Amino acid sequence: MARGARYSRWDGTQHGFDFDADAVMAELGDDLVHHGDPNAALRRLLQSGFRDRGGREVEGVRSLLDQLRRRRRERLEQHDLGGAYAEVAERLRDVVDTERSAIDDLERAARESGDLRRAELTGEAAGERRLQLDLLPPDLAGQVQALSGYDFVSPEAREAFEQLVGELRQELAQSWLDRMAAGGTSPGDLARTKDMLAELNRMLEQRAAGEEPDFEGFMSRYGDFFPEGPTTLDELLEAMAQRMAAMQALLNSMTPEQRDQLQRLSDQLLSDMDLRWQVEQLGANLRQAFPEAGWQRSYDFEGTDPLGWGEAGEVLEELGDLDQLEQLLRSAASPGALAEVDLERARQLLGDDAAGSLEQLAEVARMLADAGFVEQREGRYELTPRAIRRIGEQALSELFRRLSRDALGRHHVERLGVGHERAYQSKPYEFGDPFNLDIHRTVRNALRRGGPGTPVRLDPDDFEVEETELSTRAATVIMLDVSLSMAMRDNFLAAKKVAMALYSLITGAFPKDFVGMVSFGKLARELRPERLPELSWDFDYGTNIQHGLLLARRTLARQSGTRQVLMITDGEPTAHLEAGMDRPFFNYPPTSATVDATLAEVNRCTRAGIRINTFVLDATPELRHFVEQLTRLNRGRAFFTTPATLGDYVLVDFMDSRRSSRRTGRRRTA
């Protein structure tokens, strides 16, 4: 049976088009243009986050860290570690009060019976019991120890005390043992737990001695203790180190009095010395193996909700996981580092939205690599040629959107003539024209001259031929000012974006054209266009237009066709390089020697047939005067503009000059 497909109108709620490499590249666009470093751009994206194409926010590390801090503060302001002691003390007071009431009832019943001998004996025993209760130690551990040897009169008091002791033993066992392994707390379970710990300590000693422990055998015997299913000994030890570190954080967070009471209760209720030794030995081994597990952590609980010891372990483990996630986020230098995050645990701690953001952030670098935009070399990401083209296309698209609808169509073609490309216009045939006959217009001319009817008789004056444009090759060098003033005046990003857009336009719309790049600061450098995204400004003072024009002229000397320089600058020449000089001469304000050397290079470009069009940002009177001299000598054009409108001027002028270079001419004969 043939399968069918159902389609529905896109309403913005469907998934599948909201997060891809193109969306990430668009988000990184300005950052990559400004700095050209994908590693730095990815770090900034990682910190700030972004919005996908569906408008949904992918939270960055800064926002996630704020959530972590809020979650930690909520937990600390909710609970009180001392509440568990207060609850135990209250229950012990209830046991003692119940016992006192039972003693009073017994003594009263003896007196009412009239049996003086029995009343006397009962009174003596009652006094002894009251004295024992009066002399109970003030601390919880001492009270538990004293009451454990006390002969209760009240069955209710005895039952309540035994229940309390059982619960305390259970909680303490869970605190000390269940934080390490999922064993039970019955006598048989505790014995098996002790055996497990002893074997684990032996494996650690074997590893320290260079031997290979039998991890698989250990897991076959005690795998039920570890529901998370570690596959290696290292995974097992790391999990246990985190659990024991959480328990240590609980102790660190207590006051000295609370810590002492817990220790004495543990001594009283968990009296297996061998088990205690195995636990302490394992703790020492794990501290040495995992010193960064957070053994020194402590927390200041400020709430009122009593926190029992069993529950305290869970809360401390949660706080430890929050700390660990925070440390990982703070140390993440690239999105790929987030692949180590336990997304399920992050979802439990921070919710679905935060976990989704972490997952998407972790995917960013992989998506860019899979799409061919970046590749990793020696631990760093580098832009590929495809990424450079995409950045240029984005810059070009942005600039074109700002132009008016007819901005690139308002320039007139100067003359028509023989060529290869149809102009979709016609002209009366003249001797020497290619006989590309426009049949429609030719027949219409004959009908207009001879009237309707058949046959249609053609006359030479009826002939019209299609006009064609002459395609010519152009060579362009883009000269980009990278002097410090471009960055200080906030002109560099706009200028670099325009240069990339222009490169994308030339290579895309005019693939046969040549385009070169020259950057100039205190010195000029030829730049491979594909390395343009990595270009940054010079941290040295100097605007060496003379050297830049020299390199541009030498580059264009190897090219044919129309040759031009498009120069973007915000400063007059303050440096020049003369023959025999190892270092450029710099002076501000400009000296006549620098200006003269620069204008001499302008004259050489003019004699070589190279047109210089200059785009001037933040023109001062001195810069305007220099550009007027340059234009007068070269007969190029000058545009005084701002970063906001620079792209409009450059693109319109380039398209105008490019159309003018595709000239056609009319041929006339007598």
Q: In words, what does this structure look like?
A:
With 670 residues, the chain is α/β, with parallel strands linked by helices. The protein has helices at residues 21-35, 38-48, 61-78, 83-112, 116-134, 140-148, 155-178, 187-208, 215-222, 233-253, 256-269, 273-289, 309-331, 343-350, 352-370, 385-402, 439-450, 484-488, 492-509, 545-556, 592-607, 621-634, 646-661, and strands at residues 49-51, 57-59, 79-80, 305-306, 374-377, 380-383, 421-428, 464-469, 474-481, 514-520, 524-527, 562-569, 575-576, 585-586, 610-617, 638-641. It is elongated.
Q: How many strands appear in the DSSP assignment?
A: 16
Give the helix tally.
Answer: 23
* Approximate shape: elongated
Largest β sheet strand count, sense and barrel closure: 6 strands, mixed
Instruction: Output the CATH class name of the largest domain.
Output: Alpha Beta
CATH domain topology of the largest domain = Rossmann fold
Query: If classified by CATH, what would the architecture of the largest domain be?
Result: 3-Layer(aba) Sandwich
Order of strands in the sheet with most strands: 11-10-9-12-15-16
Structural class: alpha/beta
Indicate the percent of residues in helices.
55-70%
Question: How many whole angstroms does the radius of gyration measure?
Answer: 43 Å
How much is the average pLDDT? 76
CATH superfamily of the largest domain: von Willebrand factor, type A domain
The tally of structural domains comes to 5
Distance N to C terminus = 77 Å
Strand content: 5-15%
